[in-house]
Amino acid sequence: xxxxxxxxxxALVAAIGSLxxxxxxxxxxxxxxxxGGGPAGIxxxxxxxxxxxxxxxxxxxxxxxVATGANETLPWNKDLTAIDLPGLSADVGSxxxxxxxxxxxxxxxxxxxxxxxxxxxxxxFVYPPAHDFDDNNNWPEGWKWKDLKPAAERLYQRxxxxxLPSADGKHYDQGLYSVLSKFFNSVGWKSVDxxxxxxxxxxxYSYPSWNIKDQKRAGPVRTYLPLAEKHSNFDLSLSxxxxxxxxxxxxxxxxxxxxxxxxxxxISLAHNGRVVLAAGAxxxxxxxxxxxxxxxxxIETAKKSGINVPAEKEWLDLxxxxxxxxxxxxxxxxQTNGSFGIPDYDAILNGTDRKDIxxxxxxxxxxxxxxxxxxxxxxxxxNGQTRYYQGSCAPDADSVLEIKAYLTHGATSSGVxxxxxxxxxVIEKSPYMQTAGDRKAxxxxxxxxxxxxxxxxxGLELTTxxxxxAILSTISSGNHYTTTAKMGTDDGRKGGSSxxxxxxxxxGMDNLFVxxxxxxxxxPTGNIQTTIMVIxxxxxERILAQH
Length: 547
Ligand SMILES: Cc1cc2nc3c(=O)[nH]c(=O)nc-3n(C[C@H](O)[C@H](O)[C@H](O)COP(=O)(O)OP(=O)(O)OC[C@H]3O[C@@H](n4cnc5c(N)ncnc54)[C@H](O)[C@@H]3O)c2cc1C
Ligand SMILES: *[C@@H]1O[C@H](CO)[C@@H](O)[C@H](O)[C@H]1NC(C)=O
Ligand SMILES: *[C@@H]1O[C@H](CO)[C@@H](O)[C@H](O)[C@H]1NC(C)=O
Ligand SMILES: *[C@@H]1O[C@H](CO)[C@@H](O)[C@H](O)[C@H]1NC(C)=O
Ligand SMILES: *[C@@H]1O[C@H](CO)[C@@H](O)[C@H](O)[C@H]1NC(C)=O
Prior knowledge:
Residues 5-22 have low confidence and may be disordered. This protein has helices spanning 10-16, 39-50, 96-101, 117-120, 131-134, 145-158, 175-186, 220-223, 225-229, 284-290, 296-304, 345-350, 354-360, 436-454, 468-472, 529-545, and strands at residues 2-5, 30-35, 55-58, 73-74, 77-81, 190-191, 204-206, 212-213, 216-217, 234-238, 240-248, 251-259, 264-277, 322-324, 328-335, 374-382, 385-397, 400-407, 415-419, 425-429, 461-462, 476-477, 512-514. The chain is globular. The longest helix has 19 residues, at 436-454. By secondary structure, the protein is an alpha/beta fold. Strands 1, 2, 3, 10, 11, 12, 13 and 23 form an 8-stranded mixed β-sheet that branches. Bound molecules: flavin-adenine dinucleotide and 2-acetamido-2-deoxy-beta-D-glucopyranose (NAG) (4 copies). The site of one 2-acetamido-2-deoxy-beta-D-glucopyranose (NAG) has 4 residues, from helix 15.
C-alpha cells in the first residue's frame, strides 16, 4: 500500500517511511472511495481490496497505534500506546489524546481517529443473539440471522473477542464478580459464557467479553487494516476530512476533501466507481446533507454553512436523521462487602506498578483485562413487547460497584438528528424514553433489580436512592447511535422510512452506499460494536455482488 498523508506531518511520514502529498491522489483511479476509517470503513475497505478493487480509505483523524504513526508510547513499552493497553481502557477519557481523538462537531460522543469509536471505547464485545435480527420486521428480508451468520463467522475468525484475555488462563481482580455472582445465583439467574451462548439473554450473567487479542485492544485497525496494507491496490490517507460527495445527478463522480492544512481538493472516481460512506451514525448524516441528500431544511442549512451543495433540482428528499436511536443508560451504585477497587492508573501509566507490568510482560494479569468485571442481561415483557437490558458492572470505589443498566433491543423510542450552520450535528429530539412502553418497561426492570438488591439477605446495599423516577432521570447516552440513514424496503422518497435499500445503496443514487451504524434499523441487545462489524462484513459482500 501507499500511505498518503494529506497534510504534511513529518513525524508520521517518517514513521511510515513513504512520502506522498495531497496532490498525489490518483484521479479516476479508485474503484472504491471509502469515507471514514472506523470499524465499518476499515472492514469494507479491506474486503474490497481483497476482491482486487482499487481502494482509497479516507480518514479525518490520525493513527492511534505505533504501526499507524502514533509516537506517544508507554514509558515502559515503546511498542504500545495507552490506547493499546486493555488495563488502561477505563482511563482513556483522562488521557491527553482523548481531546485529540474525540469529534468536536457531533453533539453525541464519537471518535474522530483511525479506528473510530473502537479506538477509545470500553471494549465490551457482545456477540449479537439471533433474536436481534429475527424477532420483528425491523431488519428486512436478507438481513436475518441466517443471512448474517456467515458474515459474523468471518468477523469472529479475525476478531474473536475474549472473556479470558490473560495468557495464564486466570481471571484477575475478581472481588466484584464473586460478590455479584453470589447475588445473582441467590435470585435464580444463571452463569453463561456470553461468547459461546450469545442467545442466552434472560436472567444471565457472564465474565465480560472484550475486544482484545494477543493482550492488546483489538478491532479492525489491528485485525483487518494490516491485511489491506499488504496490497498495492490500497491507499490510506489520514487527516483527510471529506466534506461531501460530488454528484452529477444520481451519479457520484468523486469526493471533496479538506486536508490538515485546510486545503480543499476533489478526488474523482474511476469509471463505474463507487463511494461508500462509513463516517458513523452522527457524521454520515452531515455528509449526506452536504451532498444534497436529506430533508430540505438540512440541505439548506448545509448550503448556508458554506458547503458547495448541488443545485436544488438534484436534491433527494430522504429521511436522513429521522429515526435516530441509541441505548439509554441508568446508573445504580451498590455498596458491598467484597474486596475490590479501582486500579491505580497513574502508577500503570508511569511504570511504578511493577507487579502488574511485570505480569503483563508474561502476557498475563490485570493489565490484559478491560474495565468491567461482569456483564448481565435480562428482559421483560410489557403489553406484549419484549425489551432487553444489559448491565455493565465495574468498580466505582473500594467495595462499591457501579451498574450501568442499558435499555436495549425492543425499545421503541426514536429521536431526530439535524445539522447546524456551523456544520455540527445536534440532537433535535432525544432518542430516549419517548414512548410510554419504554418508560413503563424500564421502570419495571429497575424496580425489580432494586427489590432484589434491597433484600436484607443480599449482602448488598443500594447507595443510590431507591426512587425510580429519580433513577430513570439519571439517563445518560449509551453512545451506541444508529438509524440515521435507515436500511429498508420502504423508499424514503415515496414517504417510506428508509434511506438505503437492502444492498445498502442510497435510494435515488446509482453508486453511493452507506455501511456504518447509520443504516441499522434496530438496536442490538448488547453493546453495538460487534453488530457494527458484522453488518459491515455483510454489506461489503452485498456491494461487491452488485454489478
Ligand atoms: C466513548 C465511547 C465508548 C463506547 N463503548 C463501547 C463499548 O464498550 N462496546 C461497544 O460495543 N461499543 C462501544 N461504543 C460504540 C462503538 O464504538 C461505535 O458504535 C462504533 O465505533 C461505531 O462504528 P462506525 O464505523 O459506525 O462509526 P465510528 O466508529 O464513529 O467511525 C467513523 C469514522 O469515520 C471518520 N470520519 C467521520 N467523519 C469523517 C469525514 N467527514 N471524513 C473522513 N472521515 C470521517 C471518523 O474519524 C471515524 O474514524 C462506544 C463509543 C464511544 C464513543
Ligand atoms: C510526535 O508526533 C507529534 C505529532 O505528529 C509531533 O508534533 C511530535 O514532535 C512527535 N514527537 C516525537 C518525540 O517524535
Ligand atoms: C507514579 O504514580 C504513582 C501513583 O499515582 C505516584 O505515587 C508516583 O509518585 C508516580 N511516580 C512517578 C515517578 O511519577
Ligand atoms: C459478605 O456478605 C455475604 C452475605 O451476607 C456473606 O455471606 C459473606 O460471608 C460476606 N463476606 C465477607 C468477606 O464478609
Ligand atoms: C423521587 O424523585 C423525583 C425526581 O427526582 C422527585 O420529584 C420525587 O420527589 C422523589 N420522590 C421521593 C419519594 O423521594
